[in-house]
Structures are given as C-alpha cells and as structure tokens.
Amino acid sequence: MITVIKNGTVVTADLSWKADVLIDKGRIVEIGDSLKGDEQLDATGCYVMPGGIDPHTHLEMPFMGTYSSDDFESGTRAALSGGTTMVVDFALPSPGQGLLDALQMWDNKSTRANCDYSFHMAVTWWGEQVFNEMKTVIEDHGITTFKHFMAYKGALMVNDDEMYASFKRLGELGGIAMVHAENGDVVAEMCAKLLAEGNTGPEAHAYSRPPQVEGEAANRAIMIADMTGVPLYIVHVSCEEAHEAIRRARAQGKRVWGEPLIQHLTLDESEYFNKDWDHAARRVMSPPFRNKQHQDSLWAGLMSGSLSVVATDHCAFTTDQKRFGIGDFTKIPNGTGGLEDRMPMLWTHGVETGRLTPEEFVAVTSTNIAKILNCYPRKGAIRVGSDADIVVWDPAKTKTITAATQQSAIDYNVFEGHTVKGLPRFTLTRGHVAVHDGEIRTQEGHGQFVKRAPGTPTNKALSKWKEITNPRPVERTGIPATGV
Ligand SMILES: NC(=O)NCCC(=O)O
Ligand SMILES: [Zn+2]
Ligand SMILES: [Zn+2]
C-alpha cells in the first residue's frame, strides 16, 4: 500500500517547504506536488518532520535494586504517542559481566519494541574481556557508543584509569565515548555527611549533587577524551558548569557534544522542596533539577549550538518503587520519565516562545543525533530513500499532560498539569501509522534494531588531527656519546 501525506509543510533541519510525501514499503519514495497514494493522510496546517530520536532511555533496566517500569513495549508506545520514532537504550553489564552477555539480555527484551531502536553499551568495569569484546560489539553488532558512569560509586562507576583505557580503545576502534559526568567520590562523601546530619528526605539528593560535581567531571572527561583522541558525548547536561566546559572545549576545536534533557530545561529544583514526599521523590534523578540560571544556560546552548541534542533519560519508576527510599534518600531509585512529552514540551517551551525555529527543533530532536550516531540519512531526514519515520505535527493542537491518559506504565507524570501546544496528528514508524489523530495503533514487535557503523567522519578527522599533533620523538644528529 502506498501512503501519501498531503498538503503539509515539510520541515527539515535546514529547510522548510510545502510538499506532499509519498511512502512505499516503509521508505520515502517521492517528495513533490500533487502526489497520489492508496492511503491519504491530511497534513493541512501541519509540519511534516523527521520523527524524533531519543538517544537516552533506560527501558526495563535493572537499577538500584529494582527494574525501571517501562519496558520496550510501553516505552516505545509512549515514544510514538509523542512523535518519537526511534529510541537508543543502554545495554548495561553488571560489574564483571561481559558486554556480549549483557547485549544478549537487551536483545531479548527489545523484541517487543513498537518503533526502531538502537543500543549504546555501558562500560561498568574494565579488564581484558571488556577490551576484547569492545571490538566485537562495535564491528559485528553495530554498537559504537559506550557510556561511562563517573558516578554511582560502588555500583556502576569507573575510575579515571579505567576511563582512560576504555577511551583509548574506543578511539582506536572508531567509537564514541559517552559519560555520565558527576564526581562519584565527592557525591558519596556528601551523601554520607547529609545522612549523618539527619538530611534523609528527597531534597538531600539535590544537596548531594551540586553543579560543581558535574562541572568537575565534565572537565575531567573532556581532558581524558582529548588525551586519548576519542569524540565525547556528555549525557544529561544539567548546569552551566558542565555546559561551560563543553562550550569551551568546542570553541577549542575538541570533538565534544552535550545533551540536555527536557526535564532539566523545563522543571526546576523547587520540585524537591515540595511538602509531599512522593512528589519530591518522583523527581529524583541524577543530575538533579537546577535553578533558573542553569535552565537559561541550557536554552542558550541549544540556541547557539553549543548543546546539540535534547533527550529524556527516560527511566521510569512507580511511586511504590520510589518509596524504597523513605528514611534514606540514597535508596530512592534515580530516574524520571519523559518519552511521551519531550517533543510537545520542547515545542511549547522552545518554538512557541521563539527560542528555537522549527528547523532547529528538528535538528535537536532528530537530525543532529542521527548524524552523531551515524544513522543519517536513514533516520533523522525527510529525503527520498530515508525510512518513513515521520511525525505530522499539528502546531495548533493542545493538551494538558496527565498520568491518567499517558502511555507510560507508571502512576504519575513529572509534567502533570503542564499544558502543551504542538502535538502529533500522525506518527509513522517505517511507514506504519502508529498514531492516527489521537488513536494509538502501535504494533508490538514492529521495531527493528538499527545497526551503526564505526568510523564516522568526525572519528576520521579527529584521528588524522591526533596523528599529526601527537607527541613524537625529535630526530637528532650528533647525540653526545654516553660517558663510560
Ligand atoms: N539519570 C538517572 O537518574 N537515572 C538513569 C541512569 C542514569 O542515566 O544515570
Ligand atoms: Zn546517567
Ligand atoms: Zn541515563
């Protein structure tokens, strides 16, 4: 069956124009005027954009003694409902577990996905097995991005020597290093002190992770990446200190990208001071929400290009799971949801306020990350030959976000009560209409794994530059003979 999207305005990262889009066998086959198909989707008054790509999710992830509650079925259903057509989840080996073993677990879980997906790999320990398996993961499995946790001491955290070794290996294999930038040693000290002083509530989570711990770690990771010659992607950038490090690095020509989350852009630290314990605990995540100055910094980063991608870090825990931490904030599972709300919230607070153009919206929700992850223009593009992962975006449509009508499996929503303007009229995943004017028509198992090749143009450029500028011996003549 041939589908045509009629009468809309195509919006890409660099251009907008009026055109119809023709889809056959899951791909875009023609873009032009007066096109005809068997099925017609009316896009009058709408923008026809590349579906969103959320490069940071944790679906059914074992973490802090439990599992995040959205799995690949509910998580990708929520994604499609909000206009996101691809997610990238983190395969997370437990310390000592092999990378390939962990990958098998993620392969098993992801068969239920409603939309396409890819994986990042996490490096949670270091040894010969990890060194060897990295090559297989990259070259045979098409997973080229590896996250390092600089926090969660005693669990997922890696030390500087491990990070250095891993970054070096990744640089050689044409991969990309990612970091969760927080100084885990300092956080652990602060948590112990806060608890000893009687600070047990969720607000203490924010006290234990001030912007300095993030700024320090971001700087450290940037310098280690520079010394090892690997491109670096810093996840969930929440504050000016980390943003400043990224801005400076980019201005110096270092290959660094920063990813703020929709939560940090739109919610602030006052959430943790709410008198309702559940309200505050439901918003506990790392790094925590910050104040208005930090939010302004993140928005400025998106507007100026020093920050590249907006994600969610979707890691949803129910209220009951959050209550594991009553009496001890360090036991509250860290994580918040956002998959369904990222695109509408960013449109409302970004495009509707004039901070972002529609083209910039497409860049930071889809195209930039598709390029970074080396799956462009298969993903992140409205082009002939691209996958028909498309959102038909109605800028006039509004709703008030509420857990009562969300797709996510949890019992609350951190954006509860927020009104958004700008929502999908249709969401297509490889040509299948998964959202049809408010009706969810997802197909469990429709999603396919997206394999990605190493050695992006950025990797190649950086390697060449490092080859030229790396330390090398000075060629000398007439070296004095050593005295005997
Ligand atoms: N961010 C968070 O609090 N939970 C998910 C795991 C992580 O990304 O650190
Ligand atoms: Zn993280
Ligand atoms: Zn995360």
TrEMBL record:
E.C. number(s) listed in UniProt: 3.5.2.2
Gene Ontology cellular component terms for the protein in this record: cytosol
SUPFAM superfamilies documented for this protein: Composite domain of metallo-dependent hydrolases, Metallo-dependent hydrolases
Reactions the enzyme catalyzes: 5,6-dihydrouracil + H2O = 3-(carbamoylamino)propanoate + H(+)
Coiled-coil region list: none
GO molecular function, one term: metal ion binding
One GO process term, biological-process aspect: nucleobase-containing small molecule metabolic process
Cofactor(s) named in the record: Zn(2+)
Any one Pfam family match given in the protein's UniProt record, by short name: Amidohydro_1
Changes after translation: Carbamylation allows a single lysine to coordinate two divalent metal cations.
PTM-bearing positions, type N6-carboxylysine: 147
Keywords noted in UniProt: Hydrolase, Metal-binding, Zinc
Binding partners and assembly: Homotetramer.
Described function: Catalyzes the hydrolysis of dihydropyrimidines and of the structurally related DL-5-mono-substituted hydantoins, to produce N-carbamoyl-D-amino acids.
Name of the protein: D-hydantoinase/dihydropyrimidinase
Gene encoding the protein: hydA
